[in-house]
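This entry is set out below.
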Amino acid sequence: MQVVERLEVIKGPSSLIYGTSGISYGGLLNIVTKKPFKKKFFDAGLTFGSYNLQRFTGDINIPFNDDNTMLFRLNVVAHSEGSFQDYGFKRSYLLAPSFYYKINNNTEFFFDAELNNSKFSSPTWFIGVGALNVNQIDEIKVDYFKSYVSRDLDFEPTQLNNYYGRLNYSVSEDWKLSANVALADINLNGSNMVPLFLNDSLMVRRLFDYNGQYNTLNLHPFITGDFLIGNFRNRMIFGIDYKWAQIHLSRFYNLNIDTINYTQDNFPLLNLNQIRMNYSTSFIEKATANNVALYVSDFFSFNEQLNLMI
């Protein structure tokens, strides 16, 4: 949330111009990120909490010249926390630059980026509770302060990088041309420990391991105009929306790493490299998708009180 300036709820058919997939006829929730402005500004914060929570946030805004045609803003976050369990952690970093350049009186350019890097321990999901013949969760003999994994389950960081650019050009006071470009580059790495209960003392430890790449490209040029047809005012928007997405995901399952007595304090530690040498099931997913849409909308005004949107 460090880069979020505000949230906008956009209702009704006007929300359709914001994309062709993932948007319903009821509307959408639009996230507006922080943009540079015309004054020098600096803000920093430190947060400390239980389970070794440490968090630093920084926000700096710098005008590059006296006429404020080049503006720059940078938000940074460094976050680290432990866990209430015997093993668990999360470390993440965010770097979010934002740049504005007014090329001339008719042309302006925006560029934003969000560079995320996160590394975290393997969460645990318990399944097979039906084998325990219990009616309430407090009847399960699991020690909730144990993660049932180990520090050897250490993975490469997950990286999520987003880039956004926008060019605005004023043809005249009534006609404007805009072009948006958005790129996403996601590198996934992680795992989930999925223990299966066998009875009221034994469980099978199983691992769901995944890694992959997810990339998207969005192109969105559009034209807005304000003109008269006879004595009736028209405010029109016309544009093209193109989206390309590609995913390459590898998923691996080790269906039976070992069987442990979860009511005891000591059980064998897990070695990630050894686990990966004995995968029993693997899935490789590759997919590419392309979406293209054209749209046009006109806000037709009969008078100040009566309008028609088509």
Notes: The radius of gyration is 26 Å. Helices lie at 272-276. The mean pLDDT is 86. Residues 272-276 form the longest helix (5 residues).
